[in-house]
TrEMBL record:
Listed name of the protein: Nephrocystin-4
PANTHER family (alphabetical): NEPHROCYSTIN-4
GO biological process: negative regulation of canonical Wnt signaling pathway; protein localization to ciliary transition zone
GO cellular component: ciliary basal body; ciliary base; ciliary transition zone; non-motile cilium
Domain NPHP4 Ig-like span(s) in chain numbering: 30-127, 152-213, 218-312
InterPro entries the UniProt entry points to: Ig_NPHP4_2nd, Ig_NPHP4_3rd, Ig_NPHP4_4th, NPHP4
Length: 312
């Protein structure tokens, strides 16, 4: 109830106000995946204030100051005015819970100091996942988990064993084998989801933290190829088996679009030399490309890496 009174205290109007909360009109949605029980720290750049729907027009004094508020008081959410013409960022610090918890919250953006009407409302989802670290070279790696099994959402994880639906033993452990073959150095998060195929419910999720470094280059070659070389150019390089016994080797490259092998695998006797046939795809422009050739053993573990610098 709201009362309007004159100076003597006599009411001149009485209002009964009924408040009906309405769901937010969400302008943008963000979804983050992060290791469980860790802090997510994120900086998001705000768009220019005049591009926001509902922003005031022709404000005296130039750009308005922006304010942000979060629906969860336990989340640190702040922004600072960096001066005229400078971009403005929102900083978030969110404490993640145990896996597979999903934290949901809203961030409101205002251009008035009274926080009367938000010009934007953003919705956030934070998925807390089980984390596992994997560090490898750029050629290949393998990790073994005593878990229930999963399927991948990233192309960096081409092989999972078992790769289809499987039955979990009662009170038992199912081993999951993951083959990773990244083609460049860097870091990447890969999400693994365990799904019940009958109810289509998410049982558990994992976050694979992959950090890949460049392999050690044992040999380097430099070749020159003509631009517009027809169907491509053939070259040969040699590899010597350093072991006294016969070995089986597999070949792969970080640039399959530029290089193909005559044979993807070969067997060579102990101490003997094998000639690797290379076929380079034609290029229509002048430039230089660095191509890696990985020589892996019978378990697909990297033995050596050659580097070919191609000058077109």
């Amino acid at each position: 109830q709201v009362s309007f009174q004159v100076s003597g205290g006599k009411p001149i109007a009485l209002l009964r106000v009924k408040v009906e909360p309405q769901p937010h009109v969400v302008d943008q949605t963000f979804r983050f995946y992060h290791p469980e029980l860790t802090f997510l720290k994120k900086t998001i750049r705000l768009p220019p204030w005049h591009t926001l729907p509902g922003a005031p027009v022709g404000m005296p004094g130039g750009e308005p100051e922006m304010f942000v508020r979060c629906s969860d008081p336990d989340i640190i959410c702040e922004t600072k005015n960096m001066g005229p013409g400078e971009p403005q960022d929102i900083f978030l610090k969110v404490a993640g819970g145990p896996s597979p918890q999903i934290k949901k919250f809203f961030v409101a953006i205002y251009t008035d100091a009274w926080l009367a009407v938000p010009v934007q409302i953003w919705q956030f989802y934070l998925h807390s996942l089980l984390g596992s670290g994997l560090y490898s070279k750029v050629d290949a790696a393998e990790v073994r988990w005593d878990t229930a099994g999963a399927c991948s959402s990233q192309c960096w994880l081409p092989q999972v064993d078992p790769d289809g639906a499987f039955l979990l033993p009662a009170n038992g452990i199912q081993d999951l084998y993951i083959g990773v073959r990244p083609r460049r150095a860097g870091s990447r998060f890969i999400y693994l989801n365990l799904v019940d195929v009958e109810s289509y419910q998410l049982v558990s999720s994992w976050l694979l933290c992959l950090s890949c470094r460049q392999p050690l280059i044992s040999k380097a070659f430099g070749i020159s190829l003509p631009v517009g070389g027809g169907r491509g150019c053939n070259k040969r390089i040699t590899y010597t088996n350093p072991y006294p016994s016969p070995r089986l080797y597999f070949l792969c490259t970080n640039r399959p679009d530029l290089l193909q092998f005559k044979e993807d695998s070969f067997e060579v006797a102990g101490g003997e030399v094998y000639t690797i046939g290379l076929r380079f795809a034609p290029s229509q422009s002048v430039g230089e490309e660095e191509i890696l050739i990985h020589i892996n053993d019978h378990e697909d573990k990297n033995e050596e890496t050659f580097c070919v610098k191609v000058l077109y």
